[in-house]
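Structure ticket #2291
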Amino acid sequence: MLTKKTASRYLLLIATWFLVSWGACTPTFAQEMNREMRAIFETMIKELPSDLAAKFQRALDSGEPSIEFTPSEFRRFRKHPVNPFDGIQDINPNDLDGNIQLKFELPSLKNRPVVPFERQGRSLRRQLRPAIVDVTQATVKIVAEDRTVALGCIVDSGGLILTKASEIEGFDLLECHVGRTEIYPADIVAVDKKNDLALIRINADELPVIRWSDSQPQTGSFLLTPNEINQVICLGTYSAAPRSLVGANQAFLGVGPRTSDLGVTIDTVTSNSAADRAGLRAGDIITHLAEIQMRDVTDLVNTIRSRSPGDSVKIEFIRGGEERSTDAVLAGRNMTGERAARFKMMARLGAIPSRRASQFPVVFQHDSPLLPEQCGGPITDLQGNVVGINISRNNRSASYAIPSSHIKSVLPGLREQLDREE
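Resolution: structure written out below.
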């Protein structure tokens, strides 16, 4: 029984089902603060009211995921739609004397043991090695700051490698590991931001080159992700045919806007929309959304489209000559803002999303439990045909790959960009 002035309660979040079904395989490195928990905190910070967000930001800055709430703050966090921690429902603030301190813990997806009966079991992946013998010779590991940041595909025997752009940008020095022993300095020489692809170059020649398949797997067929040392690091299932993700899961505010002298005037507010829940009314004039000045309707539309359902945005507006502000949780099609926020957060539990996880022109979906640093390399069928490049881990049930047919159409543009710069 807790009688201290500041009561201590510790929440241990055990996402066992998610870990067994979708947990990442073949951990590559450990980081200072559990990256899974860091990603959850960073997402919550974007959605929570500023005073609660500040508490989680301080925890991130200190590297200690411990938060102290007053009873009022605790109740507000517990009922907020972005809160993914069901365990705190069991804590009754009325039973405690003083504040409540929660320590959030999450078993590491990278370091968990993979048990034999799982699809990612080591023995099964070892049996599948013969299928990827040729492909793994044209696969590389990209390292920065003494850790793996991506895989890559050799696309030219003279040292050109294709990989995922957003995972390798921003580093002063990149190293490319070819096989078990060869290590080369690497430079980024061309980038395709639309597809999140980059060409890097190393000083090497007579390298084996990826051969792109012209066929697509059947829905439900198995797919293999190899690394540079002849290992199958993930086994997945082909889930959905190639499609565009641009504009998918469009966010909505729920207002009828028009441009006015002071910003964007709201003519109508859709009932039960994100705007309605945030307390906006017809006649309000939006001056800033997500700290971006709203000069016309185009600014409003573009800013909302750059967000996703479940995102929380600060809205500054004028009502009756008085400046005000509110937070709105954006909704999606047929989904309220609260449901969108909850769905978005729960989908992230049991996975570590890539820095850029969506909005690709053409991808197919599969369920391989990739880590972000395992993207950028090839993905094959059981015959070893390279059917695409892994481009992102989106959530606990979906990873995306760019199909080989699209890769072949993108590569000439990257080569032209390289030729122009030279």
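Closing remark: The two ends are 71 Å apart (CA to CA).
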